[in-house]
Structures are given as C-alpha cells and as structure tokens.
Amino acid sequence: MAETLLKDQVRADLNTARRERDKLRTMVLTTLLAEARNREIEIGGEVGDEEVRALITSAVKRRREAAEQMRRGGREELAAKEDQEAVILQSYLPPQLGEHEVRTMVREAMEAGAGDLGAVMKAVSPRVKGRFEGRELNRIAREELA
After folding, report:
1. How far are the Cα atoms of 8, 32, 38, 83, 93 from residue 13, in angstroms, in the given order?
2. Of 5, 15, 109, 117, which sits 20 to 30 A from 102 (CA to CA)?
3. Tens digits of per-residue pLDDT, 70-94?
4. Between the CA of residue 82 and those of 11, 59, 118, what are the distances in Å?
5. What is the DSSP letter of 124?
6. What is the CA angle 107-108-111, rounded to 5?
C-alpha cells in the first residue's frame, strides 16, 4: 500500500517544526509518527489515513482526559500543555461536528426505527467517528430517547 497523505502531511509538518525549533509541536508530531509506526509493526503493513485518524483521535482524547486530571489536581500549567498538544493534533482531523448536527442525526436514526440506545449508537457512531466524542453522543442519544 502506498504512503498515506495524512502521514506525509504530518512528516512534512514535523520537518517544518524542527526547522522553526518549535519544541512542543516537534514532540507531539514525533510521538504521533512513532505511534503510527508501532501500529504498522502490529498489522504488518502501512497504515492508511483512516488508521492515522483513529490514532490522532485517541491521542486527542488521552490528552483531554489528562488535562482534566491535571486541573482536578490543581496543576493548571500541565493541563494547559495537554490542551495545547490536543489542539495541535486536532488540526489533523476533519472539523468537529456541533451538538445540533449530532442531535439531528440521532433524531433521524430514531425516525428510521432505532428505538433503543444500542440501535441509535450503532446507527450514528460510524457517521460521527473522529468528529464527535462518543461520550457526548451517548448523552445526546439518552436525552433524545427520554
């Protein structure tokens, strides 16, 4: 399989960050490429754009959760660093969906016959994957079903 466009973009941005001596961006992108490489070793081949997006999505989620924990522990400067890293990674993902758009998708799924939480999640999750947090989707689905 050929090199992915997204991975090439990250690699190019990493080189730019190194030239500009942007330590945070360099560290974040190096870590992302290492995760992609580890994933390639796991599957025994190249990772595609979808796979790279999945890695980025989970990295963003990890950083958001870490920032939350840092704030609870009163470590605002560390939380801010985690937030900055999440913003850098987020720039490689498609634009996030708004709550209104997701609510509309949930209602459409219910009109199409999804009558319980599992059916709604099954119908909507693939459409919002990487563009809206699963936990928030679950909350919206519960509200709409109630």
Report:
1. 9, 12, 20, 19, 14
2. 5
3. 999 999 999 999 999 999 998 888 8
4. 21, 11, 32
5. H
6. 85
> What distance in Å separates the CA atoms of residue 83 and residue 67, rounded to the nearest whole number?
6
pTM above 0.90, yes or no: no
How many other CB atoms are there within 10 angstroms of residue 146's CB atom? 5
Report the amino acid identity of residue 98: G
Structure tokens at 120: 């709604």
CA distance 18 to 42: 28
Burial of 85 (0-12, 13-18, 19+ CB in 10 A): buried
pLDDT of 115 > 60? The answer is yes
pLDDT at residue 62 tops 70: yes
Output DSSP code: residue 132.
S
C-alpha torsion sign, points 5, 8, 13, 16: negative
Count CB-CB contacts under 10 A for residue 54. Answer: 15
Going 76 to 65 to 87 to 27, the CA torsion angle's sign is positive
